[in-house]
Each structure stands twice: as C-alpha cells, then as structure tokens.
Amino acid sequence: MDFGEAVKSMKRGLHVARSGWNGKNMWIALQRPDSNSKMTLPYIYMFTAQCDLVPWLANQTDILSDDWSVVATDAETILGATAGKPGGHAGFGQ
User: Where do the domains of the chain lie?
Assistant: First the structure.
C-alpha cells in the first residue's frame, strides 16, 4: 500500500510499517490525545527496534514508498517492553 493508504489505516486504529525499514518489529501508529495527555492534537509515533515509543515524522522516501502494510501488534508485549522506560506506557494506544 502507499503512504496515503497507510495514513487511512492509522486513522482506523491500525499499526503500519514499511518492509524497507531495517529494524525488526518497527511500526507507526496514530495517537489521539485524551484528557490525560500533554499533547493537544493527534500525532504519529513509532515503536522502535529498541522497544521505545517516540514521535515520528515521515521523510520523502517514506511518503513516496509503496511498501507499507498493516501489521499485527501484541499490546501486552508492547506494554511490557515500555513499562520500565521513562514515561512508561501511560496513554498507550488511546
């Protein structure tokens, strides 16, 4: 799928990734802030190969690529991987 389709998938609550990314199990998702969030507008974040959750911005290669796909993620694994990190997993996936 292309980047536009990937964005539409994220708006439906799905996680997406590129097959061209080097790290294993990396994906991005849309975060919609809630009343406990410090952010006030939706943003895209990435689950990295090091199991970190970080803000993400697309580059030209990402935008123009057609190797995007929806990926299945295991919330328990993600929450466990991020629990000991600064910021923990508060607000994850909301």
Answer: 3-82
